[in-house]
Structure formats: C-alpha cells, structure tokens
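Write out this protein's structure.
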Amino acid sequence: MEGFILAAGLGTRLRPLTNDRPKALVEIDGVTLLEMAIHRLEESGIGHIVVNVHHFGEKVIDFIGSHRWQARIDISDERQLLLDTGGGLKKAAPLFSGRENVLVHNVDILSEIDLRDVEQRHREEGNLVTLCVSQRATKRLLRFDEKGHLAGRTEADDPGGLAFSGISVVSPELFPLLPEADHPYPFIDEYICLSTEGHRIGCYRHSAEHWLDVGKPETLEKARLWKHS
C-alpha cells in the first residue's frame, strides 16, 4: 500500500495560525500535523508517500527535505492551481506505482483507526474506493445502501447518514476514471457518480470516539489532550 497526504489546503479555519504557514505545519506540542500524518502512515507499513502542496508550499517542501523519514516521500506540486481533493488525487496519480492500493489521508485528521485493517477490508470486498465513516453530527452526510455501497448524500437530520472521516483507500483502477486535473473538484462527487455507474464505493465504519478533525482552533486543545491520553 502507498500513501497520499492531502496537505495543500488553505487552512482558512485555522487562521490566524495559517497566516504565515501552511496548515500542515501547524504544531501540537511542537510536532507538526504533517509529521504526525507521515509517522502514522509509516507505522502502518507504508513505504512510499506522496504529499500535495499549495499554500506556503515551499515551506512544506523544505520541511520534508530537512527531515529523515522511513518512507520515500514525493511532492505533488499544486502551487500554480489548488485542485481540491479530486483534482489533487488525479494530479498525484503518476507518482504512484499503479500497482498498489493508495491510502488517502487528510493532514488535519488524528485517529486510532487501524489503517491496515481498512486496506484489508478494501481488498476483501473488492472495492474501487473504501471511505472511512462514522456517525457524528455534521451537515455533510453520506448515504450507503444495505450492502454498504455509497448511494449519495443525505440530510443532516438523517439518522442513517454517515460522515466521511477524511481517510480512504483507493484502488489504482480509480485513477483513469477521474476527470483530468485541469480544474479543482472534490472526489466525493466523483465517487457518487461512479457508484451510480456500478463501481463499488464501500465504507469502513469506525467509532467517532477516537477520531478528531484538528482543522480549526477550538479542536487544537482537544488534540493536545487526546494526544496525551
């Protein structure tokens, strides 16, 4: 399995912390979100990681180059045009081997999800994409059918709706099916379309208890407490 860390975002929710640095280099007790994400993937046995960059991209490139990592790390450079999650994944595609599944991980997500188990479930179910999801309060919910396949979006008050957790596994067969990376687009919309065409877009349900989105200031303190718990 290879890894892709989505680190190109503007980090608007973390301002003013991101006025002079990218979200990926915001620190929790002296450790950057990017470093935590890289180590998380390395600990899951991933030996090749691609990181995309845009906002203060040169700082991310310098940071990666100034450290020693167990994994080989390549940069997908979006400094000319921020491509959102879907366009970013498509642009990064040539940097992967094309033979292994790719774990896609948002840089601002902390979790205790067993990433190896996610990839194993992905292979066992023969999915094109497997989305990590949980039941939690959010306006953006996804609906899955009785077989656990993506069936579209749903309303925030839908008790059966599940929230995407910013972690997924994609098969290399996905890349040719994505639109070209000449414009920004989110990958969830593409996955919904692919699901209606008969492709298996599955889910991996996990507890929301040990999962945290640290993309906003009020959750940084929670992250510090959780990190030491």
